[in-house]
Q: What sequence folds into this?
């Protein structure tokens, strides 16, 4: 970065001042992660907006790490956020208002500048694609009391929840961890996620109608959008991204279950994608595409740190829930008589990603491999181009 631009980034960017953090601690922000050195005291040049900060304490030799703790923050222009390490609880705590003001003045006078690592803005585009629907109101609505998200307080919450093999493995890993603290922390409240019914139950309707409601989640989606999201599609997508970030970066099992519930809800709609909600589903497919593109990277330190516990091979097997949902959705797009052009294009990209990265195969009823058709194929769906310009 040129000196003039670097100075402007220092002045306009937010600063995260992290005091007394022990050496070898894993510290991360957004899609970046690193191990603390002896001179580290925080991160500078953070672009204003929503970010996710996470960390994991280590043993003195830096070989074993505790479960990750993370929190979202909405950083203002030139804002200084101060946290101090508590060695007893092994976590970052807020300081008093008086201390924060004193440290903020020192930071703005560049007294800490040589101890602050720069935010790598070359990775910022990746982060924005993962978080573009997460807003300050999203954070305030979903974050737990105190703001900290950690799997160590989730074991009791999910005791009676049905789990797949990956979720059971992560739960077992938590219980057997030497860092697990089942006492006071386990009593803490988790995130305030929107309840998503897995089975629709309604009194006074015929069994055939009830079966239809469970086969097609479109009516459930409409109900949730009005009741829980104030009619805002972007608010729902913000929760989907919030849960994915808390799951992947924060290694939260509760977040994974919510992400899975939202994905299952949206992929379970068999009519909405092609009628009243085509724009929502185009945005949804883009969100999932970017999430999986990032999550499937093998060279990310964040993914490496949590891959064994969160993104294990069984999660991406051909009999996983995601494979079945995608297979049905791709078939739905193929068989539709009218398809929005953007939705078709992004669905193709998602299918290519899963086929190329995971080797998944999606057998279609027509016998065609994938959702690709010759221009003169009379059985191909009609592509309907909307007048409204596409999102970049």
A:
């Amino acid at each position: 970065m040129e000196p003039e631009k670097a100075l402007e980034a220092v002045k306009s960017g937010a600063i995260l001042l992290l005091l007394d953090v022990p050496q070898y601690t894993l510290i991360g922000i957004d899609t970046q992660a690193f191990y603390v050195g002896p001179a580290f005291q925080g991160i500078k040049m953070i672009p204003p907006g929503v970010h996710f900060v996470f960390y994991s304490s280590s043993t003195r030799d830096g070989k074993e790490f505790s479960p990750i703790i993370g929190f979202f923050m909405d950083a203002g222009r030139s804002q200084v956020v101060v946290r101090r390490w508590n060695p007893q609880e092994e976590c970052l705590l807020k300081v008093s208002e008086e201390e924060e003001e004193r440290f903020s003045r020192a930071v703005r006078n560049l007294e800490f500048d040589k101890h602050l690592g720069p935010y790598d803005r070359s990775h910022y585009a990746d982060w924005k694609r993962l978080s573009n629907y997460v807003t300050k109101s999203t954070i305030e609505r979903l974050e737990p009391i105190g703001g900290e998200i950690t799997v160590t307080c989730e074991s009791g919450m999910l005791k009676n929840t049905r789990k797949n093999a990956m979720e059971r493995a992560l739960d077992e890993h938590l219980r057997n961890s030497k860092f697990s603290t089942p006492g006071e922390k386990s009593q803490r409240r988790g995130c305030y996620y929107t309840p998503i019914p897995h089975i629709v139950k309604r009194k006074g309707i015929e069994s055939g109608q009830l079966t239809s409601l469970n086969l097609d989640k479109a009516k459930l989606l409409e109900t949730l959008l009005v009741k829980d999201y104030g009619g805002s599609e972007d608010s729902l997508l913000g929760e989907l991204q919030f849960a994915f970030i808390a799951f992947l970066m924060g290694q939260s099992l509760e977040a994974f279950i919510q992400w899975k519930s939202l994905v299952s809800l949206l992929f379970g709609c068999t009519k909405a994608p092609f009628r009243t909600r085509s724009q929502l589903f185009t945005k949804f497919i883009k969100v999932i595409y970017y999430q999986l593109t990032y999550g499937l990277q093998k060279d990310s330190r964040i993914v490496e740190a949590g891959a064994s516990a969160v993104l294990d091979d069984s999660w991406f097997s051909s009999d996983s829930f995601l494979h079945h949902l995608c297979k049905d959705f791709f078939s739905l797009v193929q068989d539709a008589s009218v398809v929005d052009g953007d939705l078709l294009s992004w669905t193709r990209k998602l299918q290519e990603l899963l086929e190329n990265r995971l080797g998944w195969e999606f057998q279609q009823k027509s016998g065609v491999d994938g959702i690709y058709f010759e221009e003169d194929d009379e059985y191909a769906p009609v592509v309907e181009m909307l007048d409204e310009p596409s999102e970049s």
